[in-house]
């Protein structure tokens, strides 16, 4: 006679009011163990969130022997090795006593520029690029109104209420007459609420083609024939902030009217910047939250104020946050005459 199967123990009834330890919470356990959070701190967080400690404690303990989690641990070792290589290379760069200084240069030879700034991956401010640009004597908010005020433009608006206004830039697109936007900028004072940025693609409109006629000589490392296709226009009040991010190509950014403060962080320090989504960091350089982003305390920030007539060269992958100190008109262009299209495998994590 066969032995009857033994029944499994009945699950303990869930106490009223406890939240379910569902798949989302189990993923949370795995993520936080990968972040090397202690089981004790995790249990406290889960209990505070309304979960049953009698379920949470064994679930946390079991994670360290879960085969899927162990596979993730091995991939984490590979990621940690890459992060350590980057950190060591950054330490070597910082041995240079001038590492923290963003140079302002003129008459840089093509060979030196290629070696030191493009291949050497260093930001620099060029002081002589715009010396013959008609834009320097012509562009102003009033000039924009007189020549182009009748044209419709797209701008970014209602940014102040959204902490992720740059990530959500498509939600902030608004259309207006340029004359009305000029009046708003001049009357509104310092604000980050509205801005006409590169993403608004003003120069793609035929009516604004005369602006390109106001651009004189370009740096010798730029391809003039590509200017119209790879140029952007910026206009806004003092107080606009382009939050911390990196571009996927190299570019030049010439300041025509007003000043901007540029702050840079080396791409080798990306692991310190909590880059969980596309090309953005949640760290605000004006108000860094070190309780939430403690690794940022190790980052080395370079800073320079760019004056009218000066041109920033932004090397590949450098993180930057830009603040307008005055009403500002700027012109950027990415027609660098070296390969300037690069692939970045960007994360798209939205729940961290």
UniProtKB/TrEMBL annotation:
Organism of this sequence: Hydrogenophaga borbori
Protein name as annotated: Cupin-like domain-containing protein
Superkingdom per UniProt: Bacteria
Pfam families: Cupin_8
Lineage: Bacteria, Pseudomonadati, Pseudomonadota, Betaproteobacteria, Burkholderiales
Domain (JmjC) ranges: 207-352
